[in-house]
Structure prediction request, 229 residues.
Amino acid sequence: MVLAGRRTERLEAVARDIAGAGGSAEVRPLDVTDRAAVEAFAASLDGPVKLLVNNAGGALGTEQVADADPDDWRTMFEVNVLGTLHVTQALLPRLEAAEGTVIVLSSTAAFVAYEGGGGYAAAKHGEHALAASLRLELCGRPVRVVEVAPGMVRTDEFALNRMRGDADGAAAVYDGVPDPLSAEDVADTIAWTASRPPHVNVDLLVVRPRAQAAQHRVHRVDRPDPRSG
Prediction:
């Protein structure tokens, strides 16, 4: 297993967990928005490539379209869409040679837009389109294309980055939500799709916490009913 990303200290922590479970993982620094770096990374890999998990992503800001910063939208598109494109293109010949699997981690924002989320939803719609187009283009060739679209996932940084470091604002996203998904839940879902028999393709798997019925329908406890009073 090769773990590639911008922050090697995070990857090294994951590699230690893998080693503790009896496996092994190599850590490589990589910025998926850097096309030349991605191509050099792909060329440096030894052996067959059986699985690619496109996990890089993120959201910036909650401004409405009228007030959004184009640089934020550009960053989200470069990481979520072009990052996935760069790595997938660089590894696709080797994935096909090994009858491998491409996994694209998108979001429920890939299907439903919402106020203040135009840039992120646009990027995730683009990532969904990339996965769907690639699956069509590879029909008849020995590569599976899987899209996993999580709903509300509580991690250390996603909401904090989106809120530009506002810890209170980030915490409010999950306020009162019983058991939002964890990173481990999403990882387990990804592992399940990748471990199906080679002839089974999970085209799209949407995974949400039980408390989230839809993008705008989230159950929260210990909150006053806005209809009362």
Remarks:
- The mean pLDDT is 94.
- DSSP finds seven helices and eight strands in the chain.
- The longest helix spans residues 70-97.
- The longest strand covers residues 144-150.
